[in-house]
């Protein structure tokens, strides 16, 4: 009987610790279920409920990239070269750059039904290798803001892209779906391909 208790306690502690580690794999942004889908190569995309204004439409996309956050960050931080990775950005010009921020001018083609949109936005890069916050400050669109979030995993980086937009004018739903959430898998695939090269 003493031998049973002698070995049962360490085995119980080991099994309990293992189960606890599995259930604590959820980070602030990615759940175990999502991580399982991402490991199978899926790109998860969903609509987001507006939080501030009724006209804001939001979308989120996640992808697992087999590269460290530093490599993914280098792609996102090099704004002028981003159009080479993501074709919907026709041109990005850096107007100002500091160690913790950038101000850029963007020429964006959402879809063939709409004209080229030009706007200026700021990027907050203080949380290096973890999060880029962006916010439109001038030009087209009434409101445009969001984040790129990078989570480190043994397999690489989970990149989450969230964006909210209020165009300030009527846009048919099919165009919004195509331009907002419809293109997200292509954008995430492009970043993934570039980082994994």
Largest sheet: 8 strands, antiparallel
Number of helices: 6
Q: Report the helical percentage.
A: 25-40%
What's the CATH C level? Answer: Alpha Beta
Q: What's the total number of strands?
A: 8
CA distance, first residue to last residue: 58 Å
CATH superfamily: START domain
Which outline best applies? globular
Number of individual domains: 1
Instruction: Give me the CATH architecture, please.
Output: 2-Layer Sandwich
Describe the structure.
The chain has 197 residues and is α+β, with helices and mostly antiparallel strands. It has one domain: START domain (Alpha-D-Glucose-1,6-Bisphosphate, Chain A, domain 4), CATH 3.30.530. 34% of the residues lie in helices and 38% in strands. The protein has helices at 2-23, 32-39, 69-77, 82-85, 173-182, 184-196; strands at 44-48, 57-65, 89-98, 101-108, 117-127, 131-139, 143-153, 156-166. It has an 8-stranded antiparallel β-sheet with strand order 1-2-8-7-6-5-4-3. A hairpin with a 2-residue loop joins β3 and β4 (101-108).
Key terms:
alpha+beta; 197 residues
Could you provide a short overview of the structure?
The protein has 197 residues and is α+β, with helices and mostly antiparallel strands. It has a single domain, classed as START domain (Alpha-D-Glucose-1,6-Bisphosphate, Chain A, domain 4).
Write the layout of secondary structure elements.
Blueprint: H1 2-23, H2 32-39, E1 44-48, E2 57-65, H3 69-77, H4 82-85, E3 89-98, E4 101-108, E5 117-127, E6 131-139, E7 143-153, E8 156-166, H5 173-182, H6 184-196
Antiparallel strand pairs: 1-2, 2-8, 3-4, 4-5, 5-6, 6-7, 7-8
